[in-house]
Amino acid sequence: SSRRRHTRYISVTGVQTCALPILFLAPGSSVTISAPDSVPTGPGQRLAFARWSDTDRFGKTRTITVGNQNVAYTALFKTQYLVTTSATPPGSGSVFPPTGYYDEGSTINFVPQPAEGYAFGAWVADPLNPEISPSSAVITQPMNVVASMVRNTV
Fold first, then answer.
1. Cα 23 to Cα 52: distance, rounded to the nearest angstrom
2. pLDDT at 45
3. What's residue 23's pLDDT?
4. CB–CB of 44/100 below 8 Å?
5. 94 in helix, strand or coil?
6. With a threshold of 0.85, does the pTM exceed it?
7. How many CA atoms lie within 13 A of 82 on its CB side?
8. Could you tell me if 46 and 40 are in contact, meaning their C-beta atoms sit under 8 angstroms apart?
């Protein structure tokens, strides 16, 4: 039986703990590879699985049938930042979109959503990013978006 040497590896850019396995598999055999959903890279930031280097058709786990050529598969990740949204005082409403991780470079339009009996007053400046306008922001770092609501007096 003739066995060929096939190198398979998953490289994760920016993650130093990545293992690079070399597998020796017979042509026609199959192997399943998987990448993590996300990898934390610091406070309020992570790398999120985007796609495989050779295609957009598969999710983070895929099965590969070994051919006659050596092949490398690379998991590609995108940077995401945690955007925390809230309203003050507690119970006075919320901000849309909700707290979550958002892609670096994406533009988010924040919308205050006052609870019954409240009206939107003003945006509270983020002490970490005071220069960012909360009504619309390009995501380049973690941020806090707080809407100050005022009680209706009518």
1. 19
2. 95
3. 66
4. no
5. strand
6. no
7. 11
8. yes
Q: Which residues of the chain have pLDDT under 50?
A: 1-18
With H, G, I as helix, E, B as strand and everything else as coil, classify residue 23: strand
Give the whole-angstrom CA distance, residue 22 versus residue 15.
19
Cβ proximity of 134 and 128 under 8 Å: no
Contact 77, 47 (CB under 8 A): yes
Q: Which tokens in the block code for residue 143? A: 């941020």
Look up residue 100 and give its two tokens: 């979550």
Residues 6+ apart with CB under 8 A from 17: none
Contact 90, 151 (CB under 8 A): no
- State the DSSP string of 28-82: T-EEEEE--SEEEEETTEEEEEEEETTBSS--SEEEEE--SS-----EEEEEEEE
